[in-house]
Amino acid sequence: MRIAVLADTHIPKRAKTLPDSAWKILESAETILHAGDASFRFRPCK
Length: 46
What we know:
Layout: E1 3-6, H1 20-28, E2 31-34
Parallel strand pairs: 1-2
């Protein structure tokens, strides 16, 4: 099984998309794990 792990992308703040080399790896993976930096704002509970 081919697994790709991706993290610290900061899209769309730091880049509009991933580099072509990253897309090539992701397209060949059977499973992709994103390990952080989701693009949403966290609102703490009151």
